[in-house]
Amino acid sequence: MNSFKKKTNRLSSRKSSALTLTGNITIDTALERHSHVEEGAQAVSSQISLFMQKVRELSDTSGTLTQAMKNYYSGSGAEDKLRVFDRAHEEVDRTIPNTLLGVAKDHIMSKLDAYTKSLDNVRQEIKVFHERQKTFDHYLKKVEKLNEEKSRRATEGKLEKPKQIEKMTRNVKKLNDARGARDEMVSSLLSQLNYFYETRISTMDPILKLLFQFQQEYYRQCATAIQVDLPTANVPV
């Protein structure tokens, strides 16, 4: 299995995490936009890998076809045709794809890998943020419940016991700590999300250009290699 096929399988098997929203319009908008950018980048990377894989498969199939034709013409006295055919396909089946796919891996895929890796890093930041949001929500609900119980006791004319006071104080502190831990990430996370959204086109432009150059060069070289005439020698009876 070649490296492009491995890359394609890895990307296609990776599932995007479900988008979790927070209820904060600013944060949720940034998260939704980033999710769109991330899914788009993964799709581009997967399809470029698949395209490169198909180029390799095409060259391999063409090489197999060339060998089949050589076998068919063997001993016929018309091998000159196949020598010309074989020389052209040596370029098309081996030299051109080997050279250009190596260039594509070094330049196109390396840029895509760096880009998707940076998106993965932000994904981890988002994960941490949601974990902190979850902790905050947990203690918010807990404190709300404790306040409801406190109000009910007050309505019944009951005084707060030291243990109840300590429990409320402890959970309010945990709530405030959770709020602080979550809020300290907001500014940095929003900056990252907005950056990747605002630079999504300028980041992909060089990759698009390199991909188009690869396609132009690949098809041009293949077309040049096979622009030869086959000999018209007669086959002996």
Automatic annotation (TrEMBL):
It holds the Pfam family BAR. InterPro entries: AH/BAR_dom_sf, BAR_dom. Residues 33-225 form the BAR domain. It comes from the Eukaryota. This is THO complex subunit 2.
